[in-house]
DNA sequence: CCGTATCCATCTCGATACTG
DNA sequence: CAGTATCGAGATGGATACGG
């Protein structure tokens, strides 16, 4: 093999970069919350609306459509009255979810360092240098 | 232990969610590109400006400051003339980079499925239903 | 119940110009 | 070389109201 799996540079630089694309998919304020909520089993629209807390109807719909389009969620309509719609993670999404866990792990392990970095940076940049 | 490491739900729902935070850090259009460019060794400002291709001076600066504040990059000024500034990944950032690789892997493995999902969704939603 | 449509405030980002 | 300052276009997201 001529290229190691760490040679990702060219992919990041070009527009089809898979990392950036996947991050753009789930980076929004709500996408992950939705994914997580749906990871445990099918959820209804109104359930999500209550669970996510703070999300507007519009944003919920937009994110659901987006995730559905990406193939991360399936949408199932039950033609009952009143209507019932369930959203469920696809296999792909559950795999992604597992991968996301390693990010959680990283973030957890380094939360201290990050907080420290913030403090250091802020004190170094916001306190006016003494005259 | 009372909670498995997969019980991330409550974290996603609350504002201090580590996943969302870490994604917000690197999800921008440029952050990953910068991180990748710096992963191979210290880089100068103008080097990044040329490498990243398409980034404006302003955005480069903003992202560099942000990443520096997060503790992902270090900034070293050499008081020469002309000035020289080098940016380098921290240990933390290199670790994050490795983690990101698993996302690349996921994206690569499923790029076909995603493209298919797009196609399916689009044909189902953009072609007007025949009357 | 499950959305879509509309309006508006806010934020983001690129272009451009100027400085130590 | 390595930034900062300012401005305006466009994207983003919340509130609200209405439709299937």
From TrEMBL, chains A, B:
UniProt-listed SUPFAM superfamilies: Winged helix' DNA-binding domain
Taxonomy, superkingdom: Bacteria
UniProt keyword Membrane, yes or no: no
PROSITE patterns: HTH_HXLR
Boundaries of every HTH hxlR-type domain copy: 17-115
Gene3D superfamilies, A to Z: Winged helix-like DNA-binding domain superfamily/Winged helix DNA-binding domain
Keyword terms: DNA-binding, Transcription, Transcription regulation
Name of this protein: Helix-turn-helix domain-containing protein
Organism the protein comes from: Streptomyces similanensis
């Amino acid at each position: 093999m001529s290229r190691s799996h760490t040679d990702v540079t060219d992919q990041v630089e070009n527009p089809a970069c898979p990392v950036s694309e996947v991050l753009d998919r789930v980076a929004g304020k709500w996408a992950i919350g939705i994914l997580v909520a749906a990871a445990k089993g099918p959820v209804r629209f109104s359930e999500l609306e209550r669970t996510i807390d703070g999300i507007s109807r519009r944003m919920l719909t937009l994110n659901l459509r987006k995730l559905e389009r990406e193939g991360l969620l399936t949408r199932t309509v039950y033609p009952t009255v009143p209507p019932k719609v369930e959203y469920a993670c696809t296999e792909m999404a559950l795999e992604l979810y597992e991968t996301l866990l390693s990010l959680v792990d990283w973030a957890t392990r380094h939360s201290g360092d990050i907080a420290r970095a913030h403090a250091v940076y802020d004190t170094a940049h916001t306190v006016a240098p003494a005259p």
